[in-house]
């Protein structure tokens, strides 16, 4: 296999000059009862904007990279120039190497077995594991809900100031202000609101629902109602109450959509 497009990484960070110049990626195992056993992390070095994807199989890495590459270039107008990763075999498939060559992307890999050389992604792996655990604990939700927690934690990080840049990741990459008014306490009590039949006024459904973040396609709030997950833009929140889950065993298959 020709690997001339795969320079080794010697541990020295080549500073990104603009958004999407260098993407860092890593695949992390996660202990879970769901079908998804891996978390695939991609971080834009320049803005620190992060994408996280739950995967069932390592082979899905190719599809995630190629779809993300197409969508983020269209959304931002910037070009991906380099993707940094370790030497795991999912990054060394012939079709991924050929894809990089076709699109002029430099495939930069760590030297040997040196996880520290993939520092940006490796550090985020530790951060997101702690973040998922904290959100689930505070919300009194079981581990089945880890994908909800992961997606929402990633969203919060992208909307929060980062010490390495002068702004938030979402501003740096997409040039939009973070929607801070929409950030609610994960797992808090929520009420879906509907217009009444006799008036046009909004009235809430008065039984406890649980806020689980936002849908990536519709951008509506994800609300658990019994065994179902509903999406709504008309929601009232009580951030001082956390109903939690005791008997319900809903498992969510995360939506693989990359648009903000």
- At the fourth level of CATH, the homologous superfamily of the largest domain is Ribonuclease H-like superfamily/Ribonuclease H
Annotated CATH topology of the largest domain = Nucleotidyltransferase, domain 5
Which parts are unreliable, with pLDDT below 50 for 5 consecutive residues or more? 1-12, 247-260
CATH architecture of the largest domain: 2-Layer Sandwich
Helix content: 25-40%
CATH class of the largest domain: Alpha Beta
How many structural domains can be distinguished in the coordinates?
2
Whole-number average pLDDT? 84
- Structural class call reads alpha+beta
Alpha carbon gyration radius = 20 Å
Proportion of beta-strand residues: 15-25%
E-strand count: 12
Instruction: Please state the overall shape, judged from the principal axes of the Cα atoms.
Output: globular
Order of helices and strands: EEEEHEHEHHHEEEEEE
End-to-end Cα distance, whole Å, is 37 Å
Q: What is the assembly state of the chains in this entry?
A: single chain
Largest sheet descriptor? 6 strands, mixed
Strand order of the largest sheet: 1-6-5-2-3-4
Number of helices: 5
Question: How would you sum up this structure, described in words?
Answer:
This protein has 260 residues and is α+β, with helices and mostly antiparallel strands. The protein folds into two domains: 8-174, Nucleotidyltransferase, domain 5, CATH 3.30.420.10; 184-238. It is 25% helix and 24% strand. It has five helices and twelve strands. It has helices spanning 61-76, 94-102, 119-139, 146-158, 169-174, and strands spanning 8-9, 22-29, 38-44, 50-55, 82-85, 106-110, 189-195, 202-204, 209-214, 221-225, 228-232, 235-238. It has a six-stranded mixed beta sheet with strand order 1-6-5-2-3-4. Strands 7, 8, 9, 10, 11 and 12 form a six-stranded antiparallel beta sheet that branches. α3 (119-139) packs across α4 (146-158). The model is unreliable at 1-12 and 247-260 (pLDDT under 50).
